[in-house]
Amino acid sequence: MSQPQYLRLGAILSGVGTTQHAWRAPDLPGDASINIQWYIQQAQKAEAAKFDLVFIVDSPFITPDTAPHFLNRLEPLTLLSAIAVHTQRIGLVATATTSYNEPFNLARAFASLDLISGGRAGWNVVTTGLEGAAGNYGREQHISHPERYRRAQEHIDVVRGLWDSYEDDAFPADKRAGVFLDKAKQHALNHRGEFFSVTGPLNISRSAQGQPVIFQAGDSNDGRNLAARNAEGIYTNAETLEDAQAFYADIKQRTAAQGRNPEHIHILPGLVPIIAATDDEARQREAQIHGAVDLAKALVQLGRPFSYHDFSPYPLDAPFPALENLSLNGYRGHAERIIRIARDEKLTLRQTALRFAARPSPFVGSAKTVADEIERWFKEGGADGFNFRVSAPSEFDAFLQGVLPLLRQRGLVRRDYEGSTLRDHLGLPAVPNRYAAARAAA
Question: Which of 47, 130, 250, 408 could in theory staple to 413 by disulfide, Cβ–Cβ 3.0 to 4.6 A?
């Protein structure tokens, strides 16, 4: 199985940050998460560096203890539409949940972003792991995990069907003949399913890439199956190359089992490097970051994947508690991973909370050390690329000015864009209109 010629690179624009202390960086505006100029500047930096895409995370529920960036941030599709007119080539990927959105509305919003940007849109499909979100959408209870994933598959099918409402040449706009629309090339969906009834057609045409690119980030068994069936990019996290290789192999195998080309799904682990002049300085900085973690906040953060389970009553220095009675109806894949690591490494609750509040990064050292490790993950089947978390501009600059030139010298990163759409950047084929394709095959 071949890998992409170049590393696929994304930039997660995370404003004031998703950790306890990132917002206190001296060079980071305190309003970065709602400051459109900050976003535009970071997106333009990423585009100048020839990144494939920028990515906006999102979720529909917060508490007073939620990470700073999540407390006060711009809505992703509105934000990316603004970025679109200040960039020319970089892809624009937004998170949107299938659990609390209607397919018609999402299909229209992403199709709009795709046209505004000239074919650079992508949709990160999530099912929402936060049980509290139910209360924001008129529900007494959060949708169960299995049902969320059945709903997600139907939601994706409906959205993709709506994106094919018009064939590419449906609008001749022939003023002399007085023909604006070729009615034979407009198609109603007439979907009736378990969760949705959608007539269609969508009232917007397709873009240069045919359809937005589909991304996914779930790590549970259901999440991996959803990705294998639909995704063209996957966001994931791994602390070791061995973990990354196992995930990579599993996803590629599941994708092939779905009858899809495994080369058409790109796996992008998160990249949060700690870069300094020397390896020793970088390790000292990592120790300082980990040593500054507030345990009380770490316990709250630990509870988030368990639907904000309260860990404060448990003894801190006893083994990580048995949680068999919890439903794990939130971020199941993440929760299961915490339980597994705590058990395998025989961690106490204190150790577990601190470990996941300041996760060990495999990318710590000088620019050369970090570049070497990135190359190793890429060449040894751990990743097709990486998703760099952008918060403090100086940290992004350290990567762009120190690590990226080394990767480019080694031929691992493109020197210029070769196309104009997100599918072009990712080496993905444009999606043909299903009705036109069926007629051509008849």
Answer: 408
**DSSP codes of every residue in 403-424:** IHHHHHHTT-S-SS-S-SSHHH
Secondary structure of 337-357 as H, E, C letters: HHHHHHHHCCCEHHHHHHHHH
Type of residue at 179: V
Distances (CA, A) of 228 to 18, 119, 305: 28, 23, 23
Q: Which amino acid is at 66?
A: T
- How many other β-carbons are positioned within 10 Å of the β-carbon of residue 249? 14
Type and span of the H or E element at 304: none
Instruction: Determine contact, residues 12/55, Cβ cutoff 8 Å.
Output: yes
Please state, in angstroms and rounded to a whole number, the distance separating the CA atoms of residues 299 and 158.
Answer: 40
| All domains in the chain, ordered by first residue | 8-163+190-280+361-441 (3.20.20.30), 294-357 (no CATH)
| CA 332 – CA 306 distance, rounded (Å) | 8
Residue 1: pLDDT over 60:
no
C-alpha pair distances (Å), 265 with each of 61, 228, 339: 29, 8, 28
Contacts of 70 (CB under 8 A, 6+ apart): 18, 59, 62
Task: Judge contact between 144 and 329, C-beta under 8 A.
Answer: yes
Three-class DSSP category at 216: strand
CB atoms inside a 10 Å sphere around CB 351: 16
* pLDDT grade for 326, boundaries at 50, 70 and 90: low
Task: State residue 324's pLDDT score.
Answer: 64
Flag whether pLDDT at 5 surpasses 90: no
Name the one residue in this structure whose structure tokens are 């333009």.
Answer: 44
**Inter-residue contact 353 to 346 (CB < 8 Å):** no
> How many residues are recorded in the chain?
442
Minimal CA–CA distance to 363: which of 335, 334, 402?
Answer: 402
- The token pair that represents 234 in the structure block: 């996957």
Q: Looking at residue 330, what is its pLDDT?
A: 64
Burial 191-224 (b: 16+ CB within 10 A, else e): beeebbebebbbebbbbbbbbbbbbbbbbbebbb
